[in-house]
């Protein structure tokens, strides 16, 4: 209760300071409009059909990339992790490929795919695959041999072994990987939108209104919405981790 | 700090483990060399326009960055015009975010009030995908280094801040009582007890931030810059020069790898006590 | 030197409360060694924390040289029961022992000397450059003791300081404590679960009851200032006193005896069947 009151006071305080700074003349109100102006724009924007389309486009691009990345990375991770030789070879290669910042691929992807939705999704998938893959491989390798042997003692089939022993055992680590990937994928989707104005989506909206149209109130409102999306994604994954994986060690295999 | 005061070099008795590590290290490089060779064969056979062969990429890299006069250690001007500024911005932004993040994190981790007041704001701000700020920062800051630093600092401060808060917050209660029984001043307590205790978490945050800083350096240079590796890549994109773009990609990969290794070396020096105490007591 | 009046402490609030300390009053004179014994979990550690200013007591107060204690006084050093957690894992043994001195601004060279001496006392001269996690439990505990001793405190509070050292080292450390008291006139308040130790070290023994604990009895130990691990423990007085303490712990009453100053609460016999 005390915490909630402080949360509220602090947040209101931060907003009030921003408002004061925005109105004091310390900053150019055209460049950095106060929160009240931005709030008003936000309300207007949500009645605007095109803006809603932008938001939906960003979120759906992100979601599609996450699904594809997970579908690629988890089976591959299980395969690499289960066959020690393959696992060693791939982990050596992955170790050298992982440091490449995925955004370095943006210029290439824009040439290869044009300013299309494909470019966004391809890049986001590329960036999101690594953390999930890495965590899955490690998680498989980390399964307690006692668990495996116990399962063997019960004469489980290969398939039962996978669905009843291995998958539940690696779930927390995979979920951690997915959580890390989720924010990377969002960064990549928004980056591509910002860079390629015609790619559509929230990033393009921010670029067009900010750098392009000098309508900073709209641009900042758009950035705020991007923050809300990121925040919602974080919340969902934190909730999922608490809900399904009630042990905190999931972060270990980073 | 007393951590670095250690004089004697710890010689680990298990040379066998060392040898094992050396073999593992060589093995990894051998595998990687094999991978490059396979890639060379594949790209030569496929002749895909978007995938130049590794040898072409290598030649382009030498051409771009290692074709300078001997007086510059064979580094070309492009190294000083593009790579060095990029690196400076990356490290400068990361270091600034690190210092601010650690100082704020130590205070917020030890003060429930501060934490309660600002945690909602922080958890919102850290959720904003940093590239979404680029168009805004492009207007607010002069194009070039100031705008790029702002982007990097804003983007990478959160992992450090949150990890420091966590590390400072989870300080053992007995340690707190011990220092209270010694009547340390608050700043001294933060600097000599909370900071070292939180270092393992802080380093974890710094590593996440470093790779994020590399990403943001590249993006900010792709969007608004007049030099830098990212700028070079955008130029290459306009010329449809795929080998140059790949050269940039590979260089960024090397940078990411080297920076991470360097940070790991520093981490081992500074918080070796942590890893060794963990492995010894199994806690 | 130390006056404790009416201290009581209740943990928690609302429905789940636990009253650890009833109503505790006693005082300690300068240069005295007072041992506190009591059943496990009765609140001995809580009592030391509440007296020293680490934990604000629910009621009552303690005064150190006449001044009311609200935070740990300068001249007080504390040895914690959780010795392994109370050492800093990022500092060597030397760094740990020197830590409070550094905070007081003592020069590096002087620190070096004082630390070496203190580590010599506890027999850890060879371990100066080791890290706490490289030491055994008993060695860690001795580092914690050395760290408390280097400050030459006027009042030393120790919570089961010798609990995890072997019998031989334990005897040496007990004698060290007696020597420190003799040489520096240090006042010591020490919690122990070892009845022999409490009698051997003390000028007085405070026996606590189960929670909410109160002082069942205060025994005066008149074995003189010079004590010896073997001969003192053979004297009739010693044997008699330790029987007394044991009986008090078990029954909460000592039978008929002059040393019993106060019997505040008698614990029913069935309740103490441990
Ligand atoms: N922080 C706390 N919150 C709630 N209860 C506590 C707390 N600390 C101790 N207690 C409870 O208070 C009682 C007394 O604890 P205390 O540690 O003082 O006992 P003790 O006599 O030192 O025990 P021991 O002989 O095991 O050291 C115990 O029942 C314990 O569970
Ligand atoms: Mg105790």
From TrEMBL, chain A:
Topological category with respect to the lipid bilayer: Multi-pass membrane protein
Residue ranges crossing the lipid bilayer per the database entry: 59-80, 92-113, 119-137, 218-237
Cellular location(s): Cell membrane
Keywords: Cell membrane, Membrane, Transmembrane, Transmembrane helix, Transport
One GO-annotated biological process of the protein: transmembrane transport
ABC transmembrane type-1 domain: residues covered: 55-237
Protein name: NitT/TauT family transport system permease protein
Similarity section: Belongs to the binding-protein-dependent transport system permease family.
Family matches, as Pfam families: BPD_transp_1 (PF00528)
Gene Ontology cellular component annotations, sorted alphabetically: plasma membrane
Matches recorded under CDD domains: TM_PBP2 (cd06261)
From TrEMBL, chain B:
Subcellular location: Cell membrane
Domain ABC transmembrane type-1: 83-267
GO cellular component, one term: plasma membrane
Keywords: Cell membrane, Membrane, Transmembrane, Transmembrane helix, Transport
Predominant place of localization: membrane
Residue spans crossing the bilayer: 21-42, 91-111, 132-158, 213-234, 246-266
Cited InterPro entries: MetI-like, MetI-like_sf
Pfam family, one: BPD_transp_1
Membrane topology: Multi-pass membrane protein
GO annotation terms (biological process): transmembrane transport
Gene3D superfamilies reported in the protein's UniProt record: MetI-like
Family stated for the protein in its record: Belongs to the binding-protein-dependent transport system permease family.
Listed name of the protein: ABC-type nitrate/sulfonate/bicarbonate transport system permease component
Automatic annotation (TrEMBL), chain C:
GO molecular function: ATP binding; ATP hydrolysis activity
All copies of domain ABC transporter, residue ranges: 2-235
Keyword tags: ATP-binding, Nucleotide-binding, Transport
InterPro entries reported for this sequence: AAA+_ATPase, ABC_transporter-like_ATP-bd, ABC_transporter-like_CS, ABC_transporter_ATP-bind, P-loop_NTPase
Superkingdom of origin organism: Bacteria
Protein name: NitT/TauT family transport system ATP-binding protein
Organism: Actinophytocola algeriensis
């Amino acid at each position: 209760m005390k915490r909630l009151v402080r949360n509220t006071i602090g947040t209101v305080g931060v907003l009030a300071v921003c408002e004061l700074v925005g109105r004091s003349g310390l900053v150019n109100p055209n460049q950095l409009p106060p929160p009240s102006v931005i709030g008003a724009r936000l309300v207007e924007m949500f009645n605007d059909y095109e803006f809603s389309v932008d938001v939906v486009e960003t979120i759906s691009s992100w979601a599609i990339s996450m699904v594809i990345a997970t579908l690629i990375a988890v089976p591959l991770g299980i395969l690499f992790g289960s066959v020690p030789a393959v696992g060693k070879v791939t982990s050596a290669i992955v170790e050298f490929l992982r440091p490449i910042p995925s955004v370095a691929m943006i210029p290439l992807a824009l040439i290869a795919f044009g300013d299309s939705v494909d470019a966004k999704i391809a890049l986001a998938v590329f960036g999101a695959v690594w953390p999930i893959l890495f965590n899955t491989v490690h998680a498989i390798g980390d399964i307690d041999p006692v668990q495996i042997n116990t399962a063997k003692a019960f004469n489980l089939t290969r398939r039962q072994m996978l669905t009843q022993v291995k998958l539940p055992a690696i779930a927390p680590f995979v979920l951690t990987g997915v959580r890390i990937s989720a924010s990377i994928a969002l960064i990549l989707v928004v980056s591509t939108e910002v860079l390629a104005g015609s790619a559509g989506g929230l990033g393009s909206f921010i670029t067009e209104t900010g750098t392009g149209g000098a309508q900073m109130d709209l641009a900042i409102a758009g950035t705020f919405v991007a923050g809300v999306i990121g925040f919602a994604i974080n919340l969902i994954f934190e909730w999922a981790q608490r809900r399904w994986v009630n042990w905190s060690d999931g972060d270990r295999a980073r | 700090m007393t951590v670095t005061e250690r004089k004697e070099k710890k010689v680990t008795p298990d040379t066998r483990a060392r040898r094992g590590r050396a073999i593992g290290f060589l093995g990894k490089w051998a595998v990687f060399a094999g991978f490059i060779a396979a890639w060379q064969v594949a790209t030569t056979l496929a002749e895909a326009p978007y995938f130049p062969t590794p040898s072409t990429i290598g030649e382009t890299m030498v051409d771009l960055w290692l074709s300078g006069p001997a007086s510059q250690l064979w580094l070309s001007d492009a190294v000083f015009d593009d790579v060095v500024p990029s690196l400076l911005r990356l490290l400068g932004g990361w270091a600034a975010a690190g210092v601010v993040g650690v100082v704020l994190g130590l205070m917020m981790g030890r003060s429930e009030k501060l934490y309660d007041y600002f945690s909602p704001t922080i958890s919102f701000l850290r959720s904003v995908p940093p590239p979404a700020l680029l168009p805004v920062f492009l207007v607010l800051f002069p194009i070039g280094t100031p705008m790029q630093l702002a982007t990097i600092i804003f983007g990478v401060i959160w992992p450090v801040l949150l990890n420091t808060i966590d590390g400072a917050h989870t300080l053992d209660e007995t340690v707190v009582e011990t220092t209270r029984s010694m009547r340390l001043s608050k700043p001294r307590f933060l600097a000599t007890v909370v900071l070292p205790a939180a270092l393992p978490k802080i380093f974890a945050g710094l590593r996440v931030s470093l790779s994020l800083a590399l990403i943001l350096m590249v993006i900010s240079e792709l969007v608004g810059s007049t030099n830098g590796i990212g700028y070079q890549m955008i130029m290459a994109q306009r010329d449809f020069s795929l080998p140059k773009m790949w050269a940039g990609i590979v260089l960024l990969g090397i940078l990411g790898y080297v920076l991470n290794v360097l940070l790991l070396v520093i981490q081992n020096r500074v918080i070796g006590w942590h890893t060794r105490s963990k492995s010894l007591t199994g806690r | 030197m130390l006056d404790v009046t009416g201290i009581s402490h209740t943990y928690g609030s609302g429905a789940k409360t636990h009253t650890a300390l009833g109503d505790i009053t006693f005082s300690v004179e300068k240069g005295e060694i007072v041992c506190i014994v009591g059943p496990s979990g009765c609140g001995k550690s809580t009592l030391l924390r509440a007296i020293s200013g680490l934990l604000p007591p629910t009621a009552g107060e303690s005064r150190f040289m006449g001044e009311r204690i609200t935070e740990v006084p300068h001249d007080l050093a504390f040895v914690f029961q959780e010795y392994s957690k109370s050492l800093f894992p990022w500092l060597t043994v030397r760094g740990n022992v020197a830590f409070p001195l550094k905070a007081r601004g003592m020069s590096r060279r002087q620190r070096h000397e004082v630390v070496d001496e203190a580590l010599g006392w506890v027999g850890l001269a060879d371990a100066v450059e080791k890290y706490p996690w490289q030491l055994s439990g008993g060695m860690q505990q001795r580092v914690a003791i050395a760290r408390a001793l280097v400050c030459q405190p006027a009042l030393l509070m120790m919570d089961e300081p010798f609990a995890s050292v072997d019998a031989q080292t334990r005897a040496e450390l007990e004698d060290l404590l007696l020597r420190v008291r003799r040489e520096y006139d240090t006042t010591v308040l020490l919690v122990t679960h070892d009845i022999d130790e409490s009698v051997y070290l003390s000028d007085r023994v405070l026996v606590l009851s189960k929670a909410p604990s109160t002082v069942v009895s205060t025994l005066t130990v008149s074995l003189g200032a010079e004590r010896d691990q073997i001969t003192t423990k053979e004297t009739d007085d010693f044997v008699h006193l330790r029987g007394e303490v044991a009986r008090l712990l078990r029954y909460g009453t000592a039978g008929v005896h002059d040393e019993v100053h106060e019997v505040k609460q008698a614990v029913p016999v069935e309740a103490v069947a441990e």
